């Protein structure tokens, strides 16, 4: 099992950090990447029992009633119509696909047709997914094997187009009639934030990244303690989220316990957010839709032991196709548009990822909160 020593130490340090003077000079931003194994005072990591994401998924709890017949075929999450493959390279079509089933954690994939990467040309193939009940879905893909062309040096790539930034005062004006609070969500990537300026700009709340699961390690965001102290001192309402792609119930419990021990009873203004969004090559996690929903329920159940409630973060597409939350679920919707077409219930809406606000250098996510 996970040792609690490092998390306990971090929680004590966080508590001490929060009781320090609000006028203390903020720490300088760390330059290390999330994959660094170095331990720093604000960052600790918890090694999971295995870093292999292909660990067997815990079985879905059996219903006391006879289950309904499974008539739903597996669903493609990513499946291109065509692929361009460099000659003499290794090719595995599954590396370019992502799929999920409603009930089965593993799905059989078969390929009709061959691709010879030693010979340039066009190769049509058909990929078939079959679940345990025999439901099938297929995808025709045209694979083109090509010889790379050496660059001539006559042309240079042009500059990347500059994104359209959304100023916070404009954001507030656009949604002035919706009766919502205006907020942002941040992590270490926003650097040292001047929350007094953020508050003065009209921001009501901030959602902070507390922990991230990365390459088999659970890591505390290195700006979390600083952000939590300074945001509260500025009078902002505060919430937290954990970014994870844990794929077993045991691992979700361990991570949730670690998060709650880090919080150490800290008063929050919002439910604790579950951010699971690693849907590329989803089949590697050995999870079904039902299994993924079970993980969120485990997260909420474990949070309740510490007196916290949970909130689900996801994009419009995945809310509609995979999560399918009930009307009483607390949802944070991500949909980058002026007016969302999402028809489900939600209490928070992340509208844009290119916001700008005084007190933060660079872009920041913009959010509306409709709760009480």
Describe the fold and architecture.
The protein has about 375 residues and is an alpha/beta fold. It has two domains: about 5-55 and about 160-370, TIM Barrel (Alpha-Beta Barrel); about 75-145, Immunoglobulin-like, CATH 2.60.40. Helix content is about 20%, strand content about 25%. The strands form three sheets. It has an eight-stranded mixed barrel with strand order 9-10-12-13-14-15-16-17, surrounded by four helices. It has a four-stranded mixed β-sheet with strand order 3-7-6-5, with no helix packed on it. Helix 1 packs parallel to helix 4, helix 1 packs parallel to helix 5 (about 250-265) and helix 5 (about 250-265) runs parallel beside helix 6 (about 290-305). The protein is globular, with a radius of gyration of 23 Å. About 35% of the residues are buried.
How many independent structural domains? 2
Q: Do you know the CATH architecture of the largest domain?
A: Alpha-Beta Barrel
Pattern of helices and strands: HEEEEEEEEHEHEEHEHEHEHEEE
* CATH H-tier superfamily of the largest domain: Glycosidases
State the shape. globular
Low-confidence segments: 1-6, 8-64
Strand content: 25-35%
**Rg over alpha carbons:** 23 Å
The structure class reads alpha/beta
Do you know the CATH topology of the largest domain?
TIM Barrel
The overall pLDDT, averaged over residues, is: 86
In helices, the fraction of residues equals 10-25%
Q: Write down how many β-strands occur, each being a DSSP E stretch of 2 or more residues.
A: 17
- Record the strand order, biggest sheet: 9-10-12-13-14-15-16-17
> How many helices in DSSP terms?
7
């Amino acid at each position: 099992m996970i040792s609690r020593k490092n998390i306990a130490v971090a929680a004590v340090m966080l508590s001490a950090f929060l009781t320090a003077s609000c006028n203390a000079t903020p720490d300088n931003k760390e330059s290390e990447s999330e994959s660094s194994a170095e331990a720093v005072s604000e960052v600790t990591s918890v090694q999971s029992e295995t870093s292999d994401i292909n660990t067997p998924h815990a079985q879905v709890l059996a219903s006391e009633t006879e289950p309904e017949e499974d008539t739903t075929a597996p669903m493609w999450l990513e499946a291109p119509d065509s692929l361009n493959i460099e000659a003499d390279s290794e090719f595995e079509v599954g590396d370019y696909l992502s799929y999920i089933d409603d009930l089965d954690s593993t799905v059989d994939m078969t390929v009709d047709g061959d691709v010879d990467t030693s010979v340039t040309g066009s190769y049509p193939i058909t990929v078939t997914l079959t679940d345990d009940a025999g439901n099938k879905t297929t995808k025709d893909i045209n694979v083109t094997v090509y010889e790379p062309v050496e660059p001539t040096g006559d042309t240079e790539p042009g500059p990347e187009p500059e994104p359209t930034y959304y100023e916070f005062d404009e954001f507030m004006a656009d949604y002035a009639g919706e009766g919502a609070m205006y907020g942002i969500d941040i992590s270490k990537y926003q650097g040292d934030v001047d929350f007094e300026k953020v508050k003065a700009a009209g921001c009501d709340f901030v959602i902070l990244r507390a922990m991230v699961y990365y390459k088999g390690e659970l890591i505390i965001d290195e700006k979390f303690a600083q952000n939590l102290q300074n945001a509260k001192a500025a009078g902002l309402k505060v919430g937290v989220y954990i970014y994870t792609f844990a794929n077993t119930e045991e691992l979700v419990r361990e991570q949730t316990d670690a998060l709650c021990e880090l919080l150490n009873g800290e008063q929050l203004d919002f439910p604790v957010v579950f951010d699971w969004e690693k849907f590329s090559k989803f089949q590697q996690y050995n999870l079904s839709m039902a299994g993924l929903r079970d993980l969120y329920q485990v997260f909420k159940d474990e949070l309740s032991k510490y007196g916290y409630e949970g909130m689900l973060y996801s994009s419009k597409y995945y809310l509609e196709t995979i999560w399918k939350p009930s009307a009483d679920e607390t949802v944070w919707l991500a949909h980058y548009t002026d007016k969302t077409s999402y028809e489900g219930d939600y209490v928070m809406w992340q509208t844009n990822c290119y916001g700008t606000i005084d007190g933060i250098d660079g872009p920041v996510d913009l959010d509306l909160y409709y709760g009480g």
